[in-house]
Fold each of these.
Amino acid sequence: MSSPILPFTEANSKRVASLFRQALRTAFDSTLKFDAYRAQTLKIRQQFEANKHISDPVELEKVIAKTEAKLTETKHPDPYITPCRPGGTKYQRNIELPKEDVVPGDW
């Protein structure tokens, strides 16, 4: 078992920031309307702000584990993918033509 990450360290800050971004993406996948998404982001920010004072490493690990479990539970089955990213609707739509002859032979 790995040792708990101490609070107020760079590693802890990156871990919490990653969870925050993941929570925002999950909220966006669930609510594509901006006003509903904005309400969700304010709620998420409020929840993260409420726990930013935690200095006990054991309690911090419990809160982080609870957050990770909630994120996996609420993960959207069909997340939004930007069209030009891998898996998007426009990804590799205009593929380059092959450099060699398409039909072999001397015409």
Amino acid sequence: MTGPKLVSILRQGDWLIASIHTALDDSQMLLFRNDLVEQIGRHRSRGVVIDVAALDVLDSFGANTLRTIAEMARLRGAETVIVGIQPDVAFAMVSLGMDTGDVPTALDLEEGLAYLGRPTGARSRGRRDAAG
């Protein structure tokens, strides 16, 4: 018998919604990265939402891998937004000097999808977050 899924990747029109359901070790994070980037190409996705709401910790490798995924997605023609960073995780990231780089963030899935649905010009003017 297999355990619960660690991540799920769902297609919603031109977008992929990738939800991380539990903390991933480094090898699982790399498998997630490879699978997501492969699916971006297979589905010709224009946008990706990575939902990390279930995570109560995000280490530097995980944060770096999320930035790498976003850059790989961009090179494949898809924009990425990270959603659901918990307050304690955000506090720890700031305390440790970690960030999401140029990857936009949003409060939740609804705001992340709204961000991807905005006209391209609004995103290209330098807005980093979907909340404001």
